Amino acid sequence: MSKIEDRNPLPTALLATPAMIRACADRDLGAIFRLAQDDLGFTLSKLARLCEMTPSRVADYVKGRAQVRQQHVVERVSQGLRIPGEMLGLAPQPWEEDAPAQTPDPVAPGARTPAPRGAGADRREPGQRGVADYWEPTPRDPSPHAPHPFGDAVELSLDVDIVVDRDGHVRLTYRQVVLNLTGRPLTRMVRELWFERTRGRLTITPTDACDRQIAIQRLYDTTGLTKFACQISPPVPPGETTVIEYVCEGGLFVDSTYWHQAIARPTRQFSLSVTHHGVAEFRGCGAVEEHPDGSENSITQHTRWSLDEDRLHVTLSRQDLVANEYVTLRWDVVHDSA
Question: Where is the sequence biased in composition, kind Low complexity (predicted)?
Answer without folding.
Answer: 108-119
